């Protein structure tokens, strides 16, 4: 439980209001505004990589199935 230095029944301390259109500062925030970087193309799309991995695994599995079926 947090310890409050305000006696019970006392009014809450006045807050400094942030002007409209401005973002209030966050406690402990050290981040700065930054521009969003451009899309990295195919290298940043996991669906493409999932398809590549799936096709590769099917090729390897197909190799073993072909070996099993071709040697009685």
From TrEMBL:
The keyword Transmembrane applies. Keywords: Membrane, Transmembrane, Transmembrane helix. InterPro entries: DUF6480. The lineage of its organism: Bacteria, Bacillati, Actinomycetota, Actinomycetes, Kitasatosporales. It comes from Streptomyces nitrosporeus. Pfam families: DUF6480. The keyword Transmembrane helix applies. The chain crosses the membrane at residues 47-66. Residues 1-38 are annotated as: Disordered. This is Uncharacterized protein. It comes from the Bacteria.
